[in-house]
Amino acid sequence: MTFQELLLRLEQFWAQHGCLILQPYDVEVGAGTMAPGTALRSLGPEPWNVAYVQPSRRPADGRYGRNPMRVQHYYQYQVILKPSPDNVVDLYLDSLRALDIDPLEHDIRFVEDDWEAPTLGASGVGWEVWLDGTEITQFTYFQQMGGIECRPVCAEITYGPERLAMCLQKKDSFWELEWAHGITYGEVDRHAEIEHNYYNFDHADVEMLFRLFEMFEAEGHRIADLGYTHPAFDYALKCSHVFNLLDARGSISVTERASYINRVRALARKCCVQYLKQREEMGFPLLKAQEAMAIV
Amino acid sequence: MAELLLEIGTEELPAGVVESALAQLQSAVTQRLQEARIAFGEVETFGTPRRLILYIHDVAPSQTDVVREVRGPAANVAFDAQGNPTPAAIGFARKQGVDVSSLEVVSTPQGEYVMAKVFERGKPTPEVASGIFPEAIRSLTFPKMMRWGSGNLRFCRPIRWILALYDGEVVPFELDGIHSGNRSRGHRFLAPEEFEVHTPADLFRQLDERYVQYDHRRRRENIRQQADRLAQEVGGHILWDEALLDEVTHLVEYPTALLGRFDPNFLNLPEPILITAMKKHQRFFAVADAQGRLMPYFVAVRNGNDYALDIVRDGNERVLTARFNDAHFFYERDRQQKLDAFVTELRRIVFQEKLGSMADKAQRLVAMAGEMAPQAGVDASLAQRAATLCKADLATEVVMELPALQGIMGREYALLSGENEQVAQAIAEHYMPRFAGDALPESALGRLLAVCDRVDTLVGYVGALQIVPTGSGDPFGLRRSAQGVVQILATDANLPRLWAFVESAARAYAQQGVEVTEQGMRLLSQMFAQRIEALLEDEGIRYDVVQVVLAEERVEPLVARSNAQMLNALPVERLTPVALAATRVRNILKAGEAAKLVPTATWQSPAGWLQQVDTSLFQHDEERALYEVASQHEARVVESAARSQADEVFSLLEAFTEPVNRFFDAVLVMAPEEALRRNRLLLLAGVDALYRYVGDFSKLVV
Fold it and tell me: Which of A166, B2, B121, B192 is the most buried (most CB within 10 A)?
């Protein structure tokens, strides 16, 4: 199964089960969780069942394209189910079957792995899911987002499509994966990966990044205070990405680190609180769409 | 008699919580049964990642009946002058459901009252269990709790079904929307459908058929046997790691072990890297040959049967190869630099936000090691070199990938960098003891560094930041650190004293602008005292003896232990006279006015007190006699105590018994004249300070 087909099958599967298929978010994020489709929408009582591919960036994780599995840019397949259905694990296993992974032919394990995202003030409880020893999915029940208790709780299923494809295609490296009809993942992404690594680790202008952080942060607070939550949240994401770049450059000392994280979290939290309040003032509009939103 | 059965069906529980959850469940239910007066027999528990099972044999069909005595109105209100019941008595009897004629009059300290004997028939067990089960389930606690869906219940992972039976019938209850029933489920993949259960035996039989090895003890042994057999097939044996075996046991409901291979070229990597990568990343067991050398095999345990086992093996071999390739790459990268080149990288690793980076910590350790080494009889330059390097491996890629290898890689890289062998050994040993029951560092340098490192951590967290472990939580391992310090210092007379280390650490922090607080140091003193107490109790020292030697602030582990062992071994006829004499001294000094006049709560040396005594104010021979014996023995007591010669100290203190007793018989300590009073108290304070080299004898039960 090609990388492309794998993503298409997941889209197909979750669409059939009632999820809205969102498109990838267009601000740099470290994970699908940070996109507003998860970070903001996981708050409050409205039902929210969605799935989307999210290209993700973690500058410090790059290895100049030399490591078969460690990269600064990769993809996540993100599913959010709110409230978490009683049969959510079974649904997940069905999604693996949709990828021709028969649990009887493999070893599938749920290994405890609790999750925390300090820049979002988010935490959850769950597992990493192993397929014959490879971690293929992060499965989390959100407990908090932006420091706010999640009620109801949503289930987040984050697939690592590259790792799944490695298992299915029996390849030992991301780069060798077949993206589609004979074209490899490496041919699609490796050139950019290597350049980004040189930029992230060796050439990013640190002074500029520090200035950007200050500017993004100030702008985020300014527009949040004007009542525009979504643009403000974008600036929280931009702050987070700039912080990650500075971190990859080794420009943030240990003593400063926590304070930068706190600053991103303060802005993200402000957005979360404000978002929830706005939805409440709007009467939580999606509550009326319980049926349209139902998981089938 | 009938049986009670409870099965809590969950999503996959963390491996570490299952056995604790079973123990909690057992005690929560059985305690409540006892309180509810329901007799029961043997209790068994079984656990898998997806279920907690409680099975109670021979459970009585109902609570035992009781007669309760209920007090009613006062007798003079309940009966009129003729002795006839009033409406108050009639109302009371009706309310209690007894005949008015059965009311009795009882006298109480508050006067005479009527009393009804109310017979209460025990309720049937299913009815009571309907209340007990949900309460017991709610009472379970886990290190991390969660909610799920739209519910409010907090548990470790979502509960998906509850099976509850008494004598074959459902014990009905509801827990946050989950209804108990008589249905269970088999293995998640091999037998996912629900099935009906009639009795405990029926459940266990069906679980066996449905690929669930519900008994975790048997499951563990099953894994052990399968793995042993596979290792034998290739002429090797498993390097058993019980913690790993426990974890694997609780990751699977139906274990099938499989033997995998890896490229023998990887055996050129240090064995700890291979073993740790297999364990931490993959939960694989390592295989060694008869000489104990690692073999290019591993044993993995699948949660399922042997169908398509080759696919599972292939996947696991692939992923292990990727892990080993990574480790190999990291190892080669690390080796391109000498170990000391990583020291500067430590500034990028946080020790504690307010206490600085690991580079700051290393700098403090160098200062401490330099100060403490001469007192420990260790070469100061070696100690400082070891302190400089001991954290460096935290910046290496192998340790960043596999933190469990801290220290072990440090030694490896130190030797490769041409460092002194003692230094390399100390780097590895300074993390010991790594867990309860682990060995202590072998080398003097390793022990010195182990104490410096932990005391630094404790002085920072507790002394400066006042962060202390709570009852159940010790996120920074502070209790374990204190335990390690106490274990090492209590058994090694060659190392400097604990509080010398503490003061040295406090100075090193002060150099970096971090100050300890008085409150923090008190907390630290208490924390060490608790660890010493635990150590002595483990060694079987009498409880009151432990209290004697722990009575002072800033207890020294070595001193406390040698004193405790000495006191514990003494015959009563030697111990009692000293204890009584010391207690007489202590008691008078503790009392109101004496404590104000001569404040012995603040420690002063015996010589310090005795120098203040004015011998010209002595009026009795007994005063002079006590003064002389104290002055003569003072230096020797102090000196013997400094060498932790507890027996010698005690023998010297025995010489005080008679003079003390004669003093009290002849002298009125609290004389009318203040000058005399104070002088006598000063003398006793000096004697008390000498006794206090052993401890507070008044805590002894004689």
Answer: A166
- B56: nearest Cα among B46, B38, B42: B42
Going by their DSSP bridges, the two strands A134-145 and A122-131 should be labelled as antiparallel
- CATH-assigned architecture of domain B571-699: Orthogonal Bundle (1.10)
Give the sign of the dihedral formed by CA A5, CA A6, CA A7, CA A13. Answer: positive
List of residues 6+ apart from B652 with CB closer than 8 A: B633, B636, B637, B640
| pLDDT single digits (tens) B46-94 | 999 999 999 999 999 999 999 988 998 998 888 988 888 999 989 999 9
- CB B49 to CB A110 under 8 A? yes
Closest Cα in chain B to A131: B315
Backbone φ and ψ of B661, nearest 5°: -65, -40
Q: Which residues of B touch A131 (CB under 8 A)?
A: 315
Alpha carbon of residue B322 to chain centroid: 38
Whether A153 sits inside 8 A of B190 (CB atoms) is no
Chain B hits for A105, CB-CB cut-off 8 Å, are 307-308, 311
Give the span between the Cα atoms of B686 and B681, in whole angstroms: 9
3 state DSSP class of B296: strand
Distance of CA A271 to the CA centre of its chain: 18
Burial A10-44 (b: 16+ CB within 10 A, else e): bbebbeebebeebebbeebbbbbbbbbbbbbbbbb
CA A3/CA A174 separation, integer angstroms: 10
Closest CA to B573 of B510, B654, B468: B654
- Local structure of residue B62 (DSSP, 8 states): B
**Which chain A residues are Cβ-neighbours of B316 within 8 angstroms?**
107, 132-133
Question: Is the CB of residue B216 less than 8 Å from the CB of residue B47?
Answer: yes
Tens-place pLDDT, residues B169-221: 999 999 999 999 999 999 999 999 999 999 999 999 999 999 999 999 999 99
Tokens matching residue A108: 């599938």
User: Is pLDDT at B474 greater than 90 in this prediction?
Assistant: no
Q: Measured between CB atoms, which of B12, B148, B307 is closest to A84?
A: B148
Contact A45, A51 (CB under 8 A): no
